[in-house]
Amino acid sequence: MSIWDILEIDPTSEESAIKKAYAKKLKLHHPEDDPKGYQRLREAYDAAMKQAKSQAASLPVFQDEEDESQYEDSEESFDSEQHFFNSNDFFPVPLEEPRTERHPVYAFLQQVKELYDDFYARITPESWQTLMDEDIVWEMEYSQELRDGLISFLEDDHHLPRIVWEVLDNTFGFREDKEELLKHYDEEFVEYMIRQIEGTMELRYDCFVNQEIAFDIEQYLDLRESAQYMLMNGEVERAGDLLEEAHGLFTDDPDLELMRGKYYLEIRKPDEALECFTRVIALQPDDPDGYWQRALLYYDQQEYEAALADCMHLLNKDEGNKDQNVLVLAGRCHLALGNTADGRELIKETLAINKLHFRSYIHWCIAENAYGKTLDPAERKQPLRDDFLFHSFLFLRLTWFYICLYLIVSLLFDLHPYSTGLLLILLLWNAWKIWKVRRVLST
C-alpha cells in the first residue's frame, strides 16, 4: 500500500491537499484508539509532505523504490511492545496554565491575534489560509489545544466574514463536530459559529474594502450584529436605537441600510424605508435584496409599474434560475395593471417550476376566477388537475392519522358502528374546511 493509498488521495505536490487528507483520516485513526493506524498515517503524511517540498524545490524524493516501500508494510513492522508515544505526548498541559512564548500553541494564538488586529488582513481569507497551513495546525499532539485556544479567542473576537469562517471550519471541522462542541463549549456561541459558517445570519464586509476606517470598527460591528439580533427577535425599539447609533459611525454599509429599511417598515414609515432600500441599490447595484424589498414596498403602496420594473430587473438578471416569489409578484403587478395575459403567463411559469408553490397557486386561483371565461379548454385542464391533486394531498395530510388509527384498531378489536360514523364525521369536517379554504382563495 503506497502513501497515497493510505491518505486516500491521488499523488500530488500540493501541501494543502495532503494536509486536508491527513486531517480527515485522523478522525478515523486516533493515536489512543488505533496506534497502528495512526503510525501508518503519520508516516505516510510525513513522506508525502517531504515529497511535496522536494518537488517544489525541483529535487527528487525517492532515489529508489526501497525508500517508498518502507511504508507499504508498516503494519507488520510495528512492534506492539515498543510504543512510540504515551498519552501525555498527545494531550499536553491545558491551555489555562501559564505559557511561555516559546510554546508553539502560544505562538500560533499570538499570530491569530495579530492577524485579527489587522482589520484589512482579517477580512481577507488568504491571510487565514496561510496561517492555517502552518505545520503546527497539522500536528496531532497540539490539535485539541489549538482548537480550544482558537474557540476561546473567537468567543471575544468573532467579527469575521463568512468566507473566513469557512476557512476555519475546513481546518477544524466545527460543523462536523458540532455535537461534540456542544458538550464542552457554550451552546449559544457554538450555534453562532455554525450560523456564521452556513451564512444564515451573514453580514458582509465588502463595504469596508478600500475604505478609510476613521471610526471604532469593533464598536460598529458590535452595534450592527446586535441590531440584527434584536430585529430578528422582535425587539424593534431597541434595534432602532442600535441602527441609528451604527449609522452615525458609518453610512455606506448596504446590510445596515437594509436593516434600517426593515426597521422603518416595522414602525410604519414607508417613505424612510424606501429611501433605505434605494440607498442599498445605489451602494450595491448587483445585490438582489434591495430590489426585492423595494418591489414589495412599491406593491404595497399600489405603485405597480415601479414594483414591476424592480421585479423584471431581478428576473432579467437571473434568467437561468428565476425566483418563484419574484415571478409571482411580477404576475400580480401585471394583473393589477390589467395585463391579464402577461400576469397569467408569469404565474403559470411558477407553477411549471413547482406545482405546489402555495403563493403561485393562490394567485392562479385569483386569475382563473377573474378571467376564467377567457381561458381556452386546454389551458384550463392543467390547473384543474393540479387543483384536484393539491387538495387531495391536503386532505390526506389532515386525515391520515385518523384513517391509520381506525384501520389499526379495527384489525385488533370489533368496533362499534358508531366508530365508523365518528371517522366519517372527521373526514367530512376536514373536507369542509378544505372546501372553505378553496372558496376563499378563488374569490
UniProtKB/TrEMBL annotation:
The keyword Repeat applies. Pfam families: TPR_16 (PF13432). It comes from the Bacteria. The chain crosses the membrane at residues 415-432. Keywords: DNA replication, Membrane, Repeat, Stress response, TPR repeat, Transmembrane, Transmembrane helix. InterPro entries: DnaJ_domain (IPR001623), J_dom_sf (IPR036869), TPR-like_helical_dom_sf (IPR011990), TPR_rpt (IPR019734), Ycf3 (IPR050498). TPR repeats lie at residues 254-287. The keyword Metal-binding does not apply. Residues 2-75 form the J domain. PANTHER family: TETRATRICOPEPTIDE REPEAT PROTEIN 6, UDP-N-ACETYLGLUCOSAMINE--PEPTIDE N-ACETYLGLUCOSAMINYLTRANSFERASE SPINDLY-RELATED. This is Tetratricopeptide (TPR) repeat protein.
